[in-house]
Task: inverse folding
């Protein structure tokens, strides 16, 4: 189980890092800015979670292969011309998995430390969404999650509660984690589809 | 004493949450954004204070009725049409009480943990003002407290020192808390009156 | 050795505080805003470092003469008319020393707490650059270090690694600290010279 979770976590880190790097590049940032925004987007949520729960050493300090990976990605992203073809639309799938993994694992850690369901769901949502909010604030925009994508945080919140209920009913941690995670990822993907149609309707309606 | 302080604290949380929700709505945020900005405005100051003083679990994790209250407020604020009538001018009174309570309680906690008067006054000011600064930064404005409302943080600073001196002279914690708190709230209300007149003079002068 | 480091640290704090106050003044902030931005620019990096490494009490709480100094500077900066003549170009030299001192001491603290070279170099860069990034975010600009000054963080990163290698080869902490610090400060000064010429070339080229 651990290996699958870790693999999904890496996919989430990579997806969030790429989303940060795309925004940083659109703001004409240099390689250092691209690394910094990628780092903050991918690891900011987990850092906030660990600071708020006094969980030391921080996640990215324990798993230093993750900042190393982001550094390598920033170098590739800055100097390999074919990376310019990566568009935000391409990362919807891994981004949805990342949102699911980060939300559920953030909530699970809070439960392990003895917090209530409500507090754990807030910490899960923060873990899943804070990186993207920081990215947008540093790039001087009203954070994405507050602006147009209202279902982003709501899906994370609902998925955390689904995970709690499943864990309580099924008494199987693994199964509950999987259900919560898949719920968030799949609902997110459906919401992206739905949102795109919604905006098209408005524009041409 | 505890009950009165807790009651005032709740008034401060509600007032700060409303001020955040009003700004979030003016930026066309959705219900999730309204909850997030309300949460951050009301509980951001206390979270910063607890992180800086290594005081765990965080205030809002210990008092989870407060985020639940803010969630309920965000739902009402988003879907109840009469909430649209709430204007920032209506919350000047509870906001002043909130500034007083958060500043004095932040300073008191720092004293209890053995910090000096100067450090405690800085932590008091941060507790009282950080939530509003975060609100404005997330909504992509130059923070309110830095821009036009110069007396906001200064009043908080002066009130903390008044509390320290009273506590030292009077040897009554309760009385000193009350004096510091009332000084901040009343001076703030007088300053708002004065500022409004000052701006009117400039515009039509 | 300690006294020289502490003296350099004070120079760094003063330089970073001035750079924050200059930006705050250009945004028409009042004395409180000038103090707040000066405080955050000078002490934000060290605060982030201490929070991330769970190193309490925070640096500025242990050394409260530093916020007192910044408060005195903010009063002078706000009310003494000759302070208006201070331009950002004047603080390039102490700012370079500050970057060197903060980066190397941040990295050293991380090593002392048992972290790896890579994690220590990231924490060194954060300590050296986070204050300036916060200053620009609070003043509602895309952070300076991401925008045009790409060598800023890179120099800090390279200097941290030079310090690690020197410390490992020379087995003299003092000498390694000095080499890393001077490398960052001197390279930064050279980079500023080079950048100025680069921009002039572009404008008149």
Result:
């Amino acid at each position: 189980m651990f290996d699958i979770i870790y693999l999904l976590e890496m996919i989430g880190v990579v997806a969030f890092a790429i989303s940060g790097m795309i925004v940083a590049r659109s703001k004409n940032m240099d390689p250092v800015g691209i690394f910094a925004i990628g780092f903050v987007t991918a690891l900011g949520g987990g850092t906030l979670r660990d600071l708020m729960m006094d969980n030391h050493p921080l996640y990215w300090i324990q798993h230093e292969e993750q900042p190393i990976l982001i550094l390598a990605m920033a170098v590739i992203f800055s100097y390999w011309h074919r990376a310019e073809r990566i568009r935000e639309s391409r990362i919807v799938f891994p981004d949805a998995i990342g949102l699911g993994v980060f939300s559920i694992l953030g909530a699970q850690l809070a439960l392990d430390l003895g917090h209530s369901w409500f507090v754990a769901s807030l910490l899960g949502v923060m873990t899943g969404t804070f990186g993207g909010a920081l990215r947008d604030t540093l790039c001087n925009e009203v954070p994405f999650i507050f602006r147009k994508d209202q279902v982003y945080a709501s899906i994370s919140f609902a998925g955390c509660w689904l995970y709690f209920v499943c864990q309580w009913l099924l008494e199987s941690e693994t199964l509950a984690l999987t259900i919560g995670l898949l719920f968030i990822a799949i609902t997110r993907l459906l919401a992206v589809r739905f949102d795109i149609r919604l905006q098209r309707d408005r524009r041409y309606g």
Residues 45 and 127 of chain A are 4 Å apart (CA to CA). The interface with chain B takes residues 51-54, 115-116, 118-119, 122, 133, 137, 140-143, 145-147, 150, 152-154 of chain A (CB under 8 Å). Chain A has one domain: 2-204. Confidence is low (pLDDT under 50) at residues 196-205 of chain A.
